[in-house]
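Checklist before submission:
- one chain only
- standard amino acids only
- sequence pasted in full

Submission:
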Amino acid sequence: MNEQIRAREVRLVGPEGEQVGIVPLERALQLAADVDLDLVEVAPLARPPVCKLMDFGKFKYESALKAREARRNQQQTVIKEMKLRPKIDPHDYETKKGHVVRFLKAGDKVKVTIMFRGREQSRPELGHRLLRRLESEISELGYVEAAPKQDGRNMIMVLAPHRATKAAAAAAVAAKAGPSRERDADTEAPQAGAEPAGTAGE
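Returned file contents:
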């Protein structure tokens, strides 16, 4: 930037993106000083390097704002965990499946863990069968991101929501936040013409 540029000549671009052409570095620096802007090298590998006239401080500030907004809008992925036994009671299974459905609808991933005890470890097919059943029953909401894998006494499978499911979850969060912001705005900004409290009837 400015005096840090080492090229003898540069291809100059104006503040509005207009092409000025190839000019000596001293001329480009003078043009930048005349309009109170910085000369910034934007394509250093070009021959000659491309430089643009801009307010570099304003550029950095706006770039930081855009990056912060992008991070705010990025939906963070949360991984929930649900633990099951290979011989789980039907009622308990339905309850825990309901939790998995709720997590997927919220846009979260779910790590499903089958816990084997004692002799159950010699019957891994029980865990596979239970996980396949769960996979088929939640298929409208999610899919298997990580296939069942034995990990010591446990068998683990990871479910992830479909893209449409995540989009619906994000839309629901945005819709829920919208009315609350509007209520806050209404509270902070009284309607024009409203009488102050205690003045009615005076």
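Reviewer check: The beta strands are 9-13, 19-24, 38-43, 50-54, 79-84, 109-115, 142-151, 154-161.
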